[in-house]
Amino acid sequence: MKIFNTTWLFFVTLFSMAQANEKLPDDLNLNGKWEMGYNQHYTKQVNVPGTHNDPTVIPDQSLWYKKEITLPKGQWNRVTLELKGARFRPEVFVDGISLGAQEGGMAPLFFPLKHKNIKPGGNITLEIALASLHDVPESDASYIPIADQWRSNVSSSLWDDVVLHFHKDVRIDRIIPFINYDDQNAEIKFELNSPKSISGLAKVVVFDKDGNQLLTSISPIEGNRNSMMLDYKDKLKSWSSDDPNLYTLRLSVFSEKDELLDVSEMNFGIKNFEVKNKKFLFNNKPFTVRGVTVVWPRWMRTDEGRELGYDTQWFYENIIKRTKDLGGNYLRFHLGLPPERFLDLCDEHGLIVQYEWSFFHGMPASEESLLLQYKNWLDLAMRHPSVALIHPYNETYGKQLDTAWSALNKLVKDYPSLVMEERDVIHVHKYWWSLFENLGLYYDSYDNFPKAIVVDEFGGNYLDADGNFGGYPKVKEAFLRFLGRMHSAQERLDFQSKANVKVAEYWRRMGAAGVSPFCALGSHEDGSHWFIGPLKEGNPKPVWEELTPVFSPQSVSLEIWDRNYTPNQSIELPVYLINDEAENSDFKVNITIQNEEGVVVNQKVITTRVNGFETVIEKVGFRTPSTVGRYTINATLLNPPNEVKYPVYSAWDINVLQANVPDNIASVKIGVPNNEPELKAFLKELNLDVTGAEDNEADVIITSLNTWEKIVENNLAVKQMLSQAIESGKSVVMLDVGDRSLGKGYPKEGNIVLGNLQGSEKLKETRSSKYDLFAGVSLQFTEVVESESHIHPAKENNSLWDHLPKDAGWLWNGYRGGLVVPAHDMEVSGLNSNAFIKQWVEKGADNTQLISKPYYAYELDGYYEFSFEKNDSKTKSKLRDKVRFLMEDAPALATSLDPNGRIEIRNLHDEFKQAKSGRAVNFIPLVECGKGLTRTPAALIQFGENKGQLVVSQLLTSGRLADGFGKEGLYGIRTDEASKQLVLNMISYTLKNN
User: Fold this and answer.
1) What's the mean pLDDT when you consider all of the chain?
2) pLDDT reported for residue 830
3) Residues near 799 by Cβ (< 8 Å), separated by ≥ 6?
4) If pLDDT is split at 50, 70 and 90, which confidence band does 374 have?
C-alpha cells in the first residue's frame, strides 16, 4: 500500500470533485449467432458458446467463426477480446487482418485488438480460427491427453463466452485478493497492462447482491503492480457453504488527470481455506468436503451434454441444488474447467469447488506453456470464492511432474496460500467394489496417511439412462464379477448405489478430509451419469438419495460388513454419529430391522449428545429376526439438519440363514481327519454322524486347512489315505486347498501399508506352486493381485446354492472386504481330454479348435488370447494392447499390470493329447468368480465308474464353520451360515453324482 502524502491527498481531492464523471462502455458479450465453417468456408450459423461439431471426431481442418459487430460509442480507445474458452490455439482476425494467435484454449485468453476500424461506433468483422487437435503439439498445455481422447470431447469450438472489453491505454490484467481472515482485512493486489509507466489512483468498491455500496477504498498507484488495503471489519460477512455471502468487487483505475482508464468487476467473498493436522479448516472451523464430480469436457461428448451443458437452470436444479439438498458442500470439476457461469453458480449457492486442469495420465507440456496457461487458469480461480482445492494434474507421475512443479513454484508466490494436490493433499483413487478392484478396506483411519486425504474417485460402476452397462469397456466384466451372470437393470442400479454409498461411508467414518464418488456427469464411454431416462427430465438414479448419509453434515453410519446371520443371533452394531457442524446436538436415531416387505421386526431408538465437530460411536445390541429370510438393518437420523431435504439413513442388507442338512447326507457317515477339530465341531453341531477319516465305513471324507498343510509337506500317509478312498468309490471333499495370500494390498498382521493410493499393487513376479495330490491329479496355484469377495454358481451348475439366496456368496463374514477366495488362481492337472477341454473353455478357449489342430493359449496378467500359431506377433500385440489399455486407462490397475511383461504360451492341443492318458475323466466347475468370471475356485473331479469323486475348493471356509475357531475384531474371521450351507451342499453333491 502506498504511503499517504500531500500529492496523494491532492489526487483524492480532485477525484472527489470530479465524481468520476467519465464512464466506459460495459463489456460487450458476443454470445449468440455466429457463422461457422472449416477453412474459412462458412456453411452454417451456430450459437456461441457451444460444441458445434461431432465431439467424437478430431477434424482435419481449422474451424472458423465469423461475426459482424457494431462497436459502442463512448470515450474508449482500446479494446481487448477475451476468449473464455476457445480450443485450440485461436488466431483472431479483424476485417481480414490477423491480430494475433496464442496457444491454449482450456483457460481464458486475451487479445488486444489494434486496427484502424476499431473505434467508437465503428463496424468490424471479427473472425476466430481454431486449430484441430491434430495440429496441437503435446507441448501445449491445452493438448488433450491421448488417454482421454477416446472418451472426451475432442472437437474444436468456442466453448465459453466471447467478450469485448473497452478501456483506455491501460488495462487491468488481473486482481488477486489476499484475505487476512483473522485481521478482517484484505489486500487487493492487481496488475495493470500499460505500455508506459503509470501514476494515478485506484478505487475499490464492494457491492452487495442488491447493488448497495458497502465499502470504498482509494489508493494511489505507481507502475503496473499495485495493492491496496480493504478493511471490512463488521461490514462484510464470511462466504461459506452454509451462508454464501457473495459480493461484487469493482476496481477502477484513473490517471493522474482523473481520466478513467479501466474498470474490472469480479465475484468477491471472504473466506479462509487451509490444511491443518490432516484436516481442512474453513473460516477457522473444521470442514469436510462432501459432494459429487462432474466431468464437463467428457459430458460434452454426448448429445444430451451438448444440449444441456450451458443450461444454468438445469445444472442448478439437478446438480447444485440436489447436492445441497442432500447436505453436500462440494463440487469437483474434473479434468478441466466448465463454462464460467457454473463457477458463478457455485459462488452464489455455496459449493466448494475442486478446480482442475486437464492433464490425465501424463503431462507432456513445456514449462513455457504451463507458465502462460496455468497463470490465466489461476487468475480465473481468484475471481471465484468457491474455488478452494487446486488440482493441476490428475494421475500423473514421474519426471513430468518436475516440469509442472517448476512452473507452479514460479507462479504460486503471486497468489494467496493455495491448497494444492500432492503438495498439501493426497487424492485417493481406489476403485474398490467397482470397475477395477475388489472391495479392499485396507485402512483404518485418516491418520494412516501422511497428509490430508480427499477420496475423489471410487464407485465407478457406470450405467446408462436405462440401467444398462455404460460404454466403458470393463463395465460388463465388473458386473459379472460382483453380480454374476444373471442380473436385472434394477439389481445393477441397486449395486451401483451400494458400492458408491458404503465405500463412501467407510471413508467418512475414517475421517477423510473429503469424499466424492465418481461421477454424476460424464460421457457414455467413461462415467455415464446418475440419471434415469431422458437427461433433460433430471430423474435421479437411486444412488443420489442414498448418498445422504455421506453428504449430510450431521449423519449416521453403520459400521457393518457381515451379511450372514442366524435366527435370534445376538449382534452388536457400531453406529457412528457424525457431527460436522459447530453446534452440539442431541442425535435421535431409529435403528430397525425390516423384512423384504418393509415390515419392522425389531427396533431401538437411541438419543446421544454429540459435540460440535466430533464423532461418537454407539454400540447398540440387537437380536436378528427368528425367521429365515432377507432383511435390512436401517439407522435413520430422526432430527436431521433443516437444510437436508432427504432422509438421513444408513442401511445394510443381511441374510438370516439356518444351515439346512440335505436329506442325502443326514444319515451317512462323514469321515474327518483327527487334526480337523473345526470340521468335527461344525458337523456334530448339525447332529451329523462323524467318524474318523480312516474308518472304512465312512461314506464320504471331508478335509480342511490342517489336512492341506500335510499335503504341502508331502505327507504320503495322508495322500495314500485319500487316494484309497477315491479308488474304493468313496468321495472326498477338500476344503481350503492351495496357497492363501489375500493380495498384495491386504494388511498383514495389522500392519497398514499404504501402497499405491491411485491403484492396486503390482506383482513383481508371478509365483506359482504345484502340489501333487493322488490319482494323477495335481493342483497349481498362481498368485494374482487380488482376492475375491463374490462367488457365483458355475455357468451350468448351481447345485451348491441349494437352500441359499444367490447373494449368499457375496461378502462372507470376516476379513477386510468379506473375502471368499484367496489371491491365487487354481488350475487342475491330470485331467483326461474331456475334463481338460472343460477347464479351458471356462477361460475362453474354443473347444473345437483345441481338439483339431495346434492351438495356443497366450496369458498375460490373468488375461488370455488364443491363436493357431506358436509365436503369433498379432496375438501377442492384441493381448498386450488389452493389458496396456487397462494399465493406461484405469488408475486402479495402472500398477498391477505390465503390458510388457512375459507372455506365457501353452500348446493346448498338445496338452489335450497328453490328457488322453489322464485318470480324471471329468471336470465340473462348481463356483466361478473374478473379472469376467474366469476363475474356478471350486470344482468336482470325476474318476470314472466305481470310483469316488473329488471336490477341491479354495474357498476361505476355515474359521467360518464353527464358533471358537476364528478371530476377534471388525475384520476377524467369524462363523458364516452361508459358508456352512455351501460346504454341506458340496458333500451332498458328491454323493448325488457318485
Assistant:
1) 93
2) 82
3) 793, 926, 985, 988, 989, 992
4) very high
Which residues have C-beta within 8 Å of that of residue 390, sequence separation ≥ 6?
355, 378, 381, 418, 419, 420, 421
Residue 622 to residues 571, 603, 629: CA-CA distances in angstroms? 5, 8, 17
Cis peptide before 315 (omega within 30 of 0): no
What contacts 295, CB < 8 A, 6 or more positions away? 152, 334, 335, 519, 521, 522, 523, 526, 527
Q: Is the pLDDT of residue 479 over 80?
A: yes
Grid cell locating 474: 470393463
Terminal-to-terminal C-alpha distance of the chain: 93
- 8-state DSSP, 746: S
Tell me how far apart the alpha carbons of residues 490 and 284 are, in angstroms, rounded to a whole number. 44
DSSP 58-70: --SS-EEEEEEEE
Residues 923-950 pLDDT 10s: 999 999 999 899 999 999 999 889 999 9
Residue 411 has pLDDT above 90, yes or no: yes
C-alpha to C-alpha distance for 613 and 39, rounded to whole angstroms: 59
* Cβ atoms of residues 438 and 788 within 8 Å: yes
At a CB cut-off of 8 Å and minimum separation 6, what does 10 contact? none
Residues 363-388, mean pLDDT to the nearest whole number: 97
335, three cell numbers: 479434468
Amino acid at 128: I
39: number of Cβ within 10 Å: 12
Q: Which of 238-247, 331-340, 547-556, 849-858 has the lowest mean pLDDT?
A: 849-858
Extended beta strands in 328-429, E state: 330-333, 352-356, 387-391, 419-420, 425-429
State mean pLDDT over 482-499.
96
pTM, to two decimals: 0.92
Q: At what angle do helices 705-712 and 716-727 cross, to 10 degrees?
A: 110
Exposure on the CB side of residue 386, measured as CA atoms within 13 A: 28
Sign of CA dihedral 405, 408, 412, 418: negative
Half-sphere exposure (Cβ direction) of 702: Cα atoms closer than 13 Å: 30
Question: What's the rounded Cα separation, in Å, for the pair 240 and 235?
Answer: 16
Instruction: State yes or no: pLDDT of 650 exceeds 90.
Output: yes
Cis amide bond preceding 416, omega within 30: no
Q: Which residues contact 897 (CB under 8 A, 6 or more apart)?
A: 762, 861, 883, 886, 887
| Strands in 580-706 per DSSP E | 585-595, 600-610, 614-623, 629-637, 649-656, 669-672, 689-692, 700-703
pLDDT of residue 312: 98
Alpha carbon distance 178, 190 (integer Å): 11
Which residue, among 431, 423, 975, 445, has the nearest Cα to 659 in the 3D structure? 975
Instruction: Fill in the DSSP letter of residue 872.
Output: -
